Amino acid sequence: MSLSIEQLARANVRALTPYQSARRLGGNGDVWLNANEYPLPVDFELTQQTLNRYPECQPKLVIERYADYAGLQPDQVLTCRGADEGIELLMRAFCEPGEDAVLFCPPTYGMYSVSAETIGVAYRIVQAREDWQLNLAEIEARLDGVKLLYLCSPNNPTGNLVNPADIRALLEMTRGKALVIADEAYIEFCPQASVAGWLGEYPHLVVLRTLSKAFALAGLRCGFVLANAPVIELLLKVIAPYPLATPVADIAAQALSESGLAEMRRHVETIKQNREQLVTALRQSRWVEAVFDSETNYLLVRFRASSFVFKSLWDQGIILRDQNKQPGLAGCLRISIGTRAECNRVIDALAALPVSDDLREQA
């Protein structure tokens, strides 16, 4: 019997809906506020002219500098192609397809489910409470067979921190049963909330980090897994032989230098200032029902007639991220914090939208 290419593919891949990244969704904008990137480019020059040689699997300088930055030892750090690869490496190392499961709490980052589906690992969902905190009782009731539990703090797309007491309760609940993975992609905007300092207390805690956000290096694709040495040793068995290209390692090391860290912290302060001004302006807009508190470089905003607002701004080249399909986020759009001028473009565009007697009729 002759099989088509699609029939030759694994059944779970045929059924898979890929993660709809900002770039896959497209748009022809000039104000890109849909991917939580830093709005301006950073200036680095390549210093390593060794492209004829394969790179180190774990570049020594990158590992040492990140360990120093995170307050850890080098054997507690693994670098990879963005935190996304870290999400998947953990599943590949710890989950048996068809037997084990992972668990996460929507509304949250979409790659947890996509990675599980790609690998063929079951996933369980325990929806967050109305305040977007963990439903610990429901999680405990569904832990049987779960190997990995992903939580995002600050959470994407809601922007809130997970209650640290609840994270501790979760770590106690899963001790000896499963790993708890704290996704800290946005932690530079609230460094006091990191749980990386808890690794000494919890052998089953893992922390994910990235250079994509506050470091303004989304195009570099460089992330980190922070964990105790036994976890790192297992991940090194399944990671690709050369996960970081030489130019990536070169720039990452520069970004983690003393001057690079100082520049990153300046980015954070700029974004926080722009965020506060945008919050104030949005709360005065007739189109806005709620602006939720954020510890990140984006805002979750509930709009009246959100579909109309989204399309109207899209048509003007202002690209936001629609979150309507996420559980509990009807009417919500996510807005990355751009430059002051980009934030003003959003406010001016909202002010110029035509208003009917009932704003909802515009949807």
From TrEMBL:
The keyword tRNA processing does not apply. Pathway: Amino-acid biosynthesis; L-histidine biosynthesis; L-histidine from 5-phospho-alpha-D-ribose 1-diphosphate: step 7/9. One of its GO terms (molecular function) is histidinol-phosphate transaminase activity. The modification N6-(pyridoxal phosphate)lysine is found at K213. Its EC number is 2.6.1.9. Keywords: Amino-acid biosynthesis, Aminotransferase, Histidine biosynthesis, Pyridoxal phosphate, Transferase. It catalyses: L-histidinol phosphate + 2-oxoglutarate = 3-(imidazol-4-yl)-2-oxopropyl phosphate + L-glutamate. One of its GO terms (biological process) is L-histidine biosynthetic process. The keyword Amino-acid biosynthesis applies. Pfam families: Aminotran_1_2 (PF00155). InterPro entries: Aminotrans_II_pyridoxalP_BS, Aminotransferase_I/II_large, HisP_aminotrans, PyrdxlP-dep_Trfase, PyrdxlP-dep_Trfase_major, PyrdxlP-dep_Trfase_small. Residues 32-350 form the Aminotransferase class I/classII large domain. Its cofactor is pyridoxal 5'-phosphate. HAMAP family: HisC_aminotrans_2 (MF_01023). Homodimer. Belongs to the class-II pyridoxal-phosphate-dependent aminotransferase family. Histidinol-phosphate aminotransferase subfamily. NCBIfam families: hisC (TIGR01141). This is Histidinol-phosphate aminotransferase. It comes from Izhakiella australiensis. The gene is hisC.
